[in-house]
Amino acid sequence: MGGQLMSVFTRRTILAATAGAVAMAMLPQTAAAQGETIRIIYPYAGGSTVNGIIRKIAEHMSGTLGQAVVVEDKPGGNGIVATQSVALGPKDGTMVLVGASGTLSLNSLLRPNLPYKIEDFEPVGMMLKGPLTVTINVDTPVTDMKGLVDWAKAENRPLRYGTLGPGSVTHLFGILLGKATGVETIPVAYRNNNAQILDLLAGQNELNFSTPASLIEHEKAGEVKMLAVTTEERMTNLPETPTVAEAGFAMLETSFWDSLMVPKGTPKEVITRLNEALNAATQSEEIKTLMAQNSLLSLSGPPEAVNEQIASDLDVWGEIVRSEGITLN
């Protein structure tokens, strides 16, 4: 009898000790996100307008969470270096990725040897999105999208448009525009945005799809004509520029975007906490005003909104990538 009691006591002790060890092992995942510095990994070089806005968002999140939130720039490999590092990072909310249309949607469509998958991440929430523009040289004799299509067909020659390289949003959008309007287009790749804008100003290209922020001063100076923006609503700092839907080409609605993502397996309560802090930041008047000044839309909502955006990208851009047979190494 004494041996049986001892055996029962021993088993209970072991079970209790095991349960305690499991509980302790689980604590750091939640505690880390509430006490340690949260690193937001930006997958490109710093210094851009979007990078500056994300740093402001990080400041707001830090105040809400009561802990340090910092942005680390980690450029390399078209965003692959940073994205892969987060996919392999800790699953406790302390390492967060700025997930973008390029790093997630386009890389997954274009690069068969990509060292990560979209499924390697859990969404935290959308941060922002912004439009491309349909912009032409000031000497082009048209004033709206329909006029551009009619003029291009009358010219009976392909229209040249600047891109940021094969597989970029600007490259794919030019193909989309050509398919939607029946106008033949030819991409011309540039190393940076300034170079392609200079050639637009010089009349070397007929079309440009850069963001409003990079063209707005040229528009104000009367050096280019911005015919439309590609989001579903007008930009507050470009109230006279119609959307592509208003111009009669709703099939051209698209945008680039940024979100926050964490590695797959991060606890749900950590994601919820980060989502609430992100939404509080993007809903603040300071952030909304800052984004509007730079022709961006401030977004908020549940984590699932990121999945919806990615699904839309894979549908729209996937069709073009497959039909054109575009792949990148």
Automatic annotation (TrEMBL):
Is Transcription there in the keyword field?
no
Position of the signal peptide: 1-33
From what superkingdom does this record's organism come?
Bacteria
Query: Which SUPFAM superfamilies does the entry mention?
Result: Periplasmic binding protein-like II (SSF53850)
Q: By its UniProt entry, which Gene3D superfamilies does this protein fall under? A: Bordetella uptake gene, domain 1 (3.40.190.150), Periplasmic binding protein-like II (3.40.190.10)
Keywords from the named record:
Signal
Question: Is Signal one of the keywords UniProt gives this record?
Answer: yes
What does the similarity note say? Answer: Belongs to the UPF0065 (bug) family.
| Protein name from the UniProt record | Tripartite tricarboxylate transporter substrate binding protein
Top-level taxonomy = Bacteria, Pseudomonadati, Pseudomonadota, Alphaproteobacteria, Hyphomicrobiales
